[in-house]
Amino acid sequence: MADTGGHATRRDKGAGAITKLGNGRYRAFVELSPNPADGSRRRTSATGHTRTEALNNARAKARRIEEDITLVDEPPTVNEWMRRWIDEIVTPRRAPNTTRSYRFRIEHDITPVIGAVRMDRLKPAHIRLVERHCLEGNPAKGIQGKSPATAALTHTVLSEACKAAVAEGIIRSNPVDAVEKNRVPPAPIATLTPGQAAMLIHAETDPRWSIIWRLLFITALREGEALGVTRNEIVRSDGLPCLLVEWQLKEFDGITDMPAGFEARRLDGRTWLTRPKTRSGRRLIPLPADLAADLAAYTADHPDIDPDTPLFRSGRGNPIRKETLQNAWRKALERVGLPRVRVHSARHTAATAMARIGVSDLARRAIIGHADIGTTDAIYTHVDADMLAGAIDGVERLIEG
């Protein structure tokens, strides 16, 4: 029986329906694998001059589609994908404060601007639009512009989200790659000179704060690392007293459970001990004899503190929080009449002192905990305790006289 336009004809084994069209050509339909997003049925079609040609064309088209499969038939909007990305990909893997920061940038600087745009239609022009929104704000709506650093962070959030969309098969390429990140001019950092640091230390009458100030200025500990020092981190290596930095004190609001793989121990309320962010952050720092002796005496005066919890405590016996540290720091500066500088600037003072006395770059990176030297190399291979001890002793002499 002859084919008539629009009517399906007999199928070849393994093929879908084949229909003869009004123009004499044939259209073949081929089943695809189920949609991986929801399991729904999918198929495609192609035409040809003969039934065999149409079927071969449809099968070839199906192979191309299967090789370039996406998770959804219609890509999500930026708003839809951002919600999914932050909930399913970022939250289970990042520190809570990082997730909170990313979510804030999404809700305030990304989705209000390009949230309705479909992910597969996202262009570099959209990325630049977000950047302008960050920097210029919207005066008509009373929205002020933000700093270049905030614009750069928003760029990073967009880039990571789009990179994940590429990995998920939602888009082919990352449109953010085509837009240069906004440059962040280096902000001047006010620091104390070694002499001014000595003034602050010598004027401190509280043994607890005196030790913390010396840890900050001499060993270049970060704030959280100084507040998180435990008895178990005070060790000896090569016969020398050392501090093995393995934990830092962090504060998280409204968090009861950490993401899987994020090593942390809850102390009380919003305070946690977490691992340093990078491998180089876990490091061995030799202690000058005087500082080691004062730290040992302070430890002996507080035998009731669990050796695996922070050594320095508030008047109520709780781990010292960052706000308490900053208040004590501000009062110490005012007491001596020194300019107000950030606590973190003590690391810069320490680094400057090390450079002044000629400490090698290798030793400086190992002590300060910057990238490029991992924990194993810093402790056992490239830098020995004697080399680092010489650097630390030199910084102590320069600061404390």
UniProtKB/TrEMBL annotation:
Presence of the UniProt keyword Protein transport in the record: no
Swiss-Prot/TrEMBL GO biological process terms: DNA integration; DNA recombination
InterPro entries, per the entry: CB, DNA_brk_join_enz, Integrase-like_cat_sf, Integrase_catalytic, Integrase_recombinase_N, Integrase_SAM-like_N, Tyrosine_recombinase_XerCD
Sequence ranges assigned to domain Core-binding (CB) in this UniProt record: 76-166
Biased composition (Polar residues): 45-55
Alphabetically ordered keywords of this record: DNA integration, DNA recombination, DNA-binding
GO MF annotation, one: DNA binding
PROSITE patterns registered for this protein in UniProt: CB, TYR_RECOMBINASE
Disordered as annotated region, ranges: 32-55
Domain of life per record: Bacteria
All residue ranges annotated as the Tyr recombinase domain in the record: 187-393
Family statement drawn from the similarity comment of this UniProt entry: Belongs to the 'phage' integrase family.
Protein name: Site-specific recombinase XerD
